[in-house]
């Protein structure tokens, strides 16, 4: 089977999912885009208005992406709109292309994405040029007014006129009616490239490009006759060295005291730079600004071409690299050092490939890709990988510090010519991940078998919603226990809802496994909502029978915690079952709360406002964790698994970790926060935890997870 | 911290034509992403940014405060504004913010720099409800008595007096508190004073960097402590939350660290004339 080459067949670019999912997707892209670019330039609008505008832009872009026949033109208008919104910062375009590139990357074909991004960049460049030109024009006119006013005041102050004349950045020339220079300033001389004292011998008509001279003659005549015309024009001037300069030209008539035409003032600005801008911006849309290497979009389209045309004998090879411990460099030595490192690494990778038909690209962050179109003399993969790590291993000097790096590499050697590009990229990516899991400076060759194991895992994940539908995946419950000093004084403090998959082939898959699988494909969102719904119903039933307002605990994954629809899902769950919000304890991972975008944080604040109890989970791992407690309306914390594991050991005061742990728990408790630990394995373990200040625990030795009936029996409910 | 320089003692309104020296208003325009600036302004902005990475956020916050304050005043029925912000052409001008919500709003800009007056006249030439008057902002009687002002505004009705980022450029020898008091006195009841002012209270070392860098370029900034900023509001009733830093005044979004640092340089407040 061969796939059509790009351009052979029009493949419409499709978005996946239901209309509601697509709308949510777009809203997410718009929100992210608006947030990131608002850090690159000042937007003079309220945030809700900004977000609305961006949503509209995203809609227009996606509509263009899916248009049949394909018409990228609206994308140019999107680029232009950014300039209208005053988004003209140094990073604005780069940031826009990054966000949109990622948002569109999920769709195919790639060449359409490239064309769209190119159009956005071109529209942006054109609007920037027009906007600069317009503002320059206004500036010229304002300067002219100031000159005119100063001229009037000249009788009062010759000196002030001189000042304007001398210091203006625009070229200013005063000529007689034949165009002979009465005087001109230094800026004019600079644009013309001639010494200032040579200006007096010049004539305005002679320094203009010969094609533009007739226009100037007409303009002089019009002004003399009192006819007005567009005062600023784009024209050309010829420098002393013969080079042609693009200029904006504004001419005005000066009248003498009796109101008779006397002299002309010409204001000139060099606008050659604006044309260069456009080229540069187009380059930017396909290249990484830091290293100058091709970016992901460019690389992907190149990959498609090379894969299809490569010599069937030698084929091509794809290397996917990731610098080891790069984040340690940026965290420890600063971002600038990190940037320098990436630049040097990029140059070295290119040097390794010198002499080969190859492309080195930066895919983002510390990820690089190399595509080699093999020839009979191309070194084999082992040689290539060795060279790459030797080259990178040479210390890079930043200041007086020498830093050596290594890379982990995933290699796909001679992939079949008809392999889909998306599949090829993900094969390289999976191989790289396998290499990384073996430690730094490792490399792996793509192994279809291993790949198929990964695929099975995916297959399992994608069948999960179906399994949920038919009841193979079900909600089970595990009671939580209030710890007490005396044995037997513990009482049930709540019920935690968990997922369990009774798989016909693989047997019982527990909650963590289910969550991993579902999170991998993003399927947990719908399942998660159903979990809250059905657990809340179950709880209402138990409460009636137990006559005890037991709370329900649900742990959210990072993905769920940041889901913009989380609040609505919780509201629905509560409304449908009539449970009070205080009955629900929602666990949110601490590192999702610290993530930059703040979506999880927004959710937390709204949920806490509603009255639900929020528990920060995975607590105790990082220095910022305590700050979360201080800043956010948190009801409880759940210790990270490694922290809970420490509780296994008998508390010895000499154990630093235990001491740190005690401090941590004590600090958390001073704020009235409930401390929870999972995975308690024995009574002794639980006693240790209690001594350290843990309030609530969960352990299979008290109650294992079970179906509603099993739990009811364990709790002694009829 | 941005506006045009105020000479110690001068009524000469044609000052400010020297484009080889940086101007606070063009500096502000540059930081906001406008294009009305010259190499001297960009050089100073670069020098500031090199020592204080969040200097752009300072200009952004001040501008965003002005926009939010205008929107608050619109909600309280104020439809006339006098902007004594020193420096007109910038991004997100008051008439744009106000007329976007209510096209019948009227705005007068007060400006002393002749090039900026010219620029403002051009910008507003097609806007019948906004004008620029060439007058000394430190002379309230002249500003409010200027025919441009009296033709545009009805001074018997409430006015929003906007002094964002301008008063800290006025030396104490010109008695800025009295200037503001005279403005407030001349306005109708239920008029509002919107004010932002540089301070060294929160992060004195950073303030010092700004003040020193600008002083070398001939721009003098006079930061004031909290109690002195509050004195500007004499004769008015402070609107909640009172005088606070720029990032604390009705924030619309979570404040990021750069904004918090930038905000610490600026006190802001809004007062209603009793």
Provide the descriptors you would attach to this structure in a database record.
heterodimer; A: 718 residues; alpha/beta; Globin-like; Beta-Lactamase; 4 domains; eight-stranded mixed β-barrel; five-stranded antiparallel β-sheet; disordered N terminus; B: 274 residues; Rossmann fold; eight-stranded mixed β-sheet; 8 strands; 15% strand; EAL_sf (chain A); Nucleotide_cyclase (chain A); PAS-assoc_C (chain A); Signal transduction protein (chain A)
Structure characterization notes:
Chain A: Pfam families: EAL (PF00563), GGDEF (PF00990), PAS (PF00989). Chain A: This is Signal transduction protein. The complex is a heterodimer of chains A (about 725) and B (about 270). Chain A is of the alpha/beta class. In chain A, helix 27 (about 685-690) links the parallel strand 20 and strand 21. Chain A has 4 domains: about 1-155, Globin-like; about 170-275, Beta-Lactamase; about 290-445, 2-Layer Sandwich (Alpha-Beta Plaits), CATH 3.30.70; about 470-715, Alpha-Beta Barrel (TIM Barrel), CATH 3.20.20. In chain A, the strands form 4 sheets. In chain A, strands 13-14-16-17-18-19-20-21 form an 8-stranded mixed barrel, surrounded by 6 helices. Chain A has a 5-stranded antiparallel beta sheet with strand order 2-1-5-4-3. In chain A, strands 7-8-6-11-12 form a 5-stranded mixed beta sheet, with helices on both faces. By secondary structure, chain B is α/β, with parallel strands linked by helices. Chain B has a single domain (about 60-200, about 220-275), classed as Vaccinia Virus protein VP39 (Rossmann fold, 3-Layer(aba) Sandwich), CATH 3.40.50. Chain B is about 40% helix and about 15% strand. Chain B is built from 11 helices and 8 strands. Chain B has helices at about 25-30, 40-50, 55-75, 95-100, 115-125, 140-145, 145-150, 175-185, 205-215, 225-230, 255-265; strands at about 80-85, 105-110, 130-135, 160-165, 190-200, 235-240, 245, 265-274. The radius of gyration of chain B is 17 Å and the shape is globular. The two termini of chain B are about 30 Å apart. The model of chain B is unreliable at about 1-15 (pLDDT under 50). Chains A and B meet through helix 5 and helix 6 of A and helix 3 and helix 5 of B.
